[in-house]
Amino acid sequence: MRVINFNPGPAGLPLPALERARDELLDFQGSGMSVMEHSHRGKEYDAVQSEAISLLTELLGIPDTHQVLFLTGGASQQFAQVPMNFLTPGASADYLMTGVWSEKAYEEAQYLGKVRIAGTTVLPDKRYVRVPRQDELTLDPKAAYVHMTSNNTIYGTQWHWWPEVGDVPLVADMSSDFMWKPMDVSRFAFIYAGAQKNLGPSGVLIAVARKDFIARGRKDIPKIFRYSTHAENNSLYNTPPTLAIYLCRNVLAWVKQVGGLGQLEKWNREKGELLYGALDKHAGFYHAPVEKDSRSYMNVVFKLPTPELDDRFVAEAKKAGMVGLKGHRSAGGIRVSTYNAVTVDNVRTLVSFMEEFIRKNG
Ligand code: PMP
């Protein structure tokens, strides 16, 4: 009995990817052992990792200028590792502040060098309800890089355009919207995303890095923290999280099988329109704080008239087989995470529940 899973991450995974893992668990391709019992340097695992990289390359259209890396430590480690590599002595980096995760990235970089806030949409009460416009950015043309968070998991805002940063390398934390739709990878010098939302289980982080950018990262930091080390060793400098990468491979194969990122975008937009449509229709009961052109298609946040009704909503939804709807502890309210594995039908079920909930409690 599987529930409808609206968890913000780790999140639900596509059933075919899990079934494939189940079927292969004890005996991976006739080898008499599971994939996680294989050497990370053996041919069986090598084929899995190579397939994951080639699926990512094909699905995203990653150009030759860029390389896929599998890293550990989550996006939180990247908050430190990005400035360790690129915030060279005397340099300064620009940060675009759009939520809790950009604040954390900024805080970590402060330990390592000079950082500037080149744009923020924080409100006096510390919340965020939109991303900035280009004319609100005060970018330093000499910055070592510009850091942004493409989707703000907690506040439910998402960038629907990319900032114009001139020749400055653009670095993006895409943890909560990586691969939600097709994109132009070449606009970014460095993209990173924890797998546990759109791509697989926790434990592995995927980076798509411009090769010349990582090649000029600092060489006077420990090897393990240099992106160039992982790039030169095809993410096999140390033992990678083989099981997590295997599961990402299964998810990527599913993405390809259902029609690729164009198809995912169609579904994701349909899910967003269903949910925001219901919220707008019942705006007197469900309050959706995010400004329309910053609304996230991955995390839809709203509040009911009282915190008690929020709690009742979460409890009754659970009874109806829907979990993961409680808002982040810092934001309260309801958060519906509609990552790639959540189906349009799942969202239709939730929307019917929302309408029924008003009839009973409105
Ligand atoms: N960035 C964003 C946008 C996130 O949503 C999260 C996790 N929810 C993180 C960073 C932190 O990821 P991790 O816990 O894997 O370090």
Strand content: 5-15%
Q: Give the count of structural domains.
A: 2
Helix content: 25-40%
CATH class of the largest domain: Alpha Beta
Q: What is the structural class?
A: alpha/beta
General description of the model:
There is one protein chain. This protein has 362 residues and is α/β, with parallel strands linked by helices. It has 2 domains: 16-257, Type I PLP-dependent aspartate aminotransferase-like (Major domain) (Aspartate Aminotransferase, domain 2); 260-361, Aspartate Aminotransferase, domain 1 (Alpha-Beta Complex), CATH 3.90.1150.10. It contains 10 helices and 13 strands. Strand 6 (151-152) and strand 7 form a beta hairpin. The longest helix has 22 residues, at 260-281. It is globular. It binds 4'-deoxy-4'-aminopyridoxal-5'-phosphate (PMP). Pyridoxal 5'-phosphate binds at residues 75-76, 101, 153, 173, 196, 238-239. It is found in: Cytoplasm.
Short key terms for the protein model shown above:
362 residues; alpha/beta; Aspartate Aminotransferase, domain 2; Aspartate Aminotransferase, domain 1; 2 domains; seven-stranded mixed β-sheet; two-stranded parallel ribbon; 10 helices; 13 strands; globular; binds 4'-deoxy-4'-aminopyridoxal-5'-phosphate; O-phospho-L-serine:2-oxoglutarate aminotransferase activity; pyridoxine biosynthesis; transferase
